[in-house]
Amino acid sequence: MKSFTKAGVAVGTALLLAACSSGGSGGSGGSSASGDSSSSGPSDRFTALPAPTSTPTPTPTPTPTPTPYGPVLAGYIDPVGAALGKINPAANMNNFMIGLQEAASAANSASSGLGLSDTPAAVGTTKRQLTTALSQLATDLTKIRSDIKAKTFCTTGSAYAQVGLSEGLKAIPAILAELAAAGYPTTFTVPQTPPLQTRSKENDTFVTKGRLRGLGELSVDNSDGTTDSVVSLSQNGKAVHSLYVGKGKKASIQGIEDGTYDVFFSDGVDWDPSLKMFTQNCSYTKFDETMAFETKRTTYSTWSITLTAQVGGNAKTSDVDEEEFPQP
Predict the structure, then answer these.
(1) Residue 137: how many CB atoms within 10 A of its CB?
(2) Over the stretch 211-266, which tens digit does the pLDDT of each residue have?
(3) 3.30.70.270, 2.60.40.10, 1.10.10.410, 3.40.50.620: CATH of 205-324
(4) Each residue's pLDDT tens digit, 10-68
(5) How far is the C-alpha of 69 from the C-alpha of 288, rounded, in Å?
(6) Is the C-alpha dihedral spanning 155, 161, 165, 170 positive or negative?
(7) What are phi and psi of 18, to 5 degrees?
């Protein structure tokens, strides 16, 4: 606080002069005497009177006007809703994962910023619940990205469904409703995500069916399997026959024409009939050796495979990328 002191000086001058004169006169016939006479009064003095004093008026310190909490809240939470709205399940997987990353970053920033912001006492507890939910949302979205890389989610549709199952995201609407009732509304909107599905195709049915004019037979045993499978016989990188085999089931292909085939199989959960692939927990495998079907005058080829590892099994397999799996 700045203060200013005012000083005034008043000077008074007092000049005291005193004069006296004396003289005498004799009577008649008397004598007279004359002479110089002088008298002096008190010494001349200048007296400095004390300066008048005044008490300075203090300059008042302005009281800061607090920023309204509503804009503070909206400034953090609304960008989270906007980022979630940009996650596009119709995009390719790379762009979908970028959207997840941006939304996770927005949720983390909102959680940190709100945690440090001044908050009205009436909604302090609710604010803390919100920061916790936002932090959980960021963690959930980051985990979905990791699960995509691990093939827990194999399509953008299944991954997007998992976004809707985030515990952090599910907690936010009720918390924001409390804040809105206290006078602090936001424009946050929860994205409408599809349910996570576990669809399955009927056992022993074809996904891809080629010509069956031969005598070759293939039996597939998935009795000990924990997921459904699709077995594909392919030539030149293209599926000739693809058979759906349910978990705990057996299936077979009859009438396979003579030829040498590469054998692939895919395991997973939730068969998407439009994409012709599993959307969750997917894996892609190839038998290292080819399978030859040959018809002779009195014999024809029959093969059988078991889709779970067996002690003493004689068929080696290798994992392959999804792009290597034969397309129908």
Answers:
(1) 27
(2) 999 999 999 999 999 999 999 999 999 999 999 999 999 999 999 999 999 999 99
(3) 2.60.40.10
(4) 334 343 434 444 444 444 444 444 444 444 455 555 555 566 666 666 666 655 444 58
(5) 65
(6) positive
(7) -130, 135
